[in-house]
Design a protein that fits this description.
This protein is of the alpha+beta class. It folds into two domains: 205 residues, no CATH class; 73 residues, Alpha-Beta Plaits. It is 63% helix and 10% strand. It has a four-stranded antiparallel sheet with strand order 2-3-1-4, covered by helices on one side.
Length: 299
């Protein structure tokens, strides 16, 4: 038994796990503020398992965080084979953290009691950033997140925000019927839309980069400059002008978004006659770029 525990301990990168836990705590804190201090305080409906837990909370008074945890258990068991063991245990930890934040930390902070529309906007922003931070740790807050991640793993072209937004309608309609609150559907959709947009921006940014196309008379020197200044690889593509048909060389290079300004400045200094185009791209996979994915990436 001791040998097995030692083997597991060596397999886990504890320094990385601590960093992940800090991200989970920060994300859970923001998500709890959005849910408790903005949405629940003014009875603005939410989506997913949290939305179901809020319906039960309004009907029975049962704590929001613990009800979310209870509802999450069957969904976690249902999706355990799809999402992977490491991701499952990490998510269970995050679910517990979020429940504590909702029931014990967020309630001690000031509560917003103003306009319901503003409450929905703020709730969506806080929850979107919070859940986005959690997702970026390759973790999850549970509930519909498990189903969303399972769908995402099978259909990677569908964004997480889109999946969450589609699942929201079911809970919002149920809440409107139970509490006779048609306005709540609109407010809940506002929360879901803003939250999904924030999630998409945080997750898409994890693998984004910039495609640089440089038409130049000095392709070899440009490639050497890119390697020396930016530490990036490049490709020389032979091209021709569309009007006169002159043969020219084009250098193709993908860089980090933060390196674009450096590249433009260096080109202006060393090759002022060159012509360059920068094209943002949401996904870059390969050497020199960190790959981010949800679910089974680490077992």
């Amino acid at each position: 038994m001791k040998n097995k525990l030692r083997a597991i301990n060596r397999k886990i990168n504890w320094k990385r796990e601590w960093k992940i836990m800090v991200g989970e705590i920060a994300g859970s804190f923001l998500a709890a503020i959005g849910a408790v201090n903005f949405a629940v305080s003014l009875n603005v409906p939410m989506t997913g398992v949290t939305g179901v837990a809020m319906i039960i909370y309004r009907l029975t008074g049962f704590p929001l965080g613990w009800m979310s945890l209870i509802l999450n258990i069957p969904l976690a068991l249902l999706c355990r084979k799809v999402i992977g063991r490491r991701f499952l245990f990490r998510s269970l930890r995050c679910m517990l953290i979020l429940s504590v934040m909702m029931d014990y930390v967020a309630p001690i902070l000031p509560v917003y009691n103003g306009d319901r529309m503003l409450a929905a906007v703020c709730a969506g922003a806080f929850m979107g950033v919070g859940y986005g931070l959690i997702y970026r740790q390759n973790s999850s807050s549970g509930g519909s997140d498990f189903i969303s991640v399972a769908i995402k793993s099978r259909f990677p072209h569908i964004t997480m925000g889109t999946i969450e937004f589609c699942a929201a309608a079911i809970v919002l309609i149920a809440s409107a019927l139970i509490f006779n609150d048609v306005d709540g559907i609109i407010l809940g959709l506002i929360i879901s839309f803003i939250s999904s947009e924030m999630i998409n921006r945080l997750l898409i940014g994890a693998n984004e980069g910039t495609v640089n196309l440089i038409v130049t008379d000095h392709p070899r020197e440009t490639c050497d400059m890119i390697d020396e200044v930016l530490g990036r690889g490049s490709t020389i593509i032979e091209a021709s002008g569309g009007y006169q048909g002159d043969r020219r060389s084009m250098v193709f290079c993908v860089t980090d978004c933060k390196q674009v300004a450096t590249l433009q400045e260096t080109l202006q200094k060393n090759d002022p006659t060159s012509f360059s185009v920068q094209i943002p791209c949401s996904e870059v996979h390969g050497e020199g770029f960190r790959f981010f994915s949800l679910g089974r990436s680490d077992g």
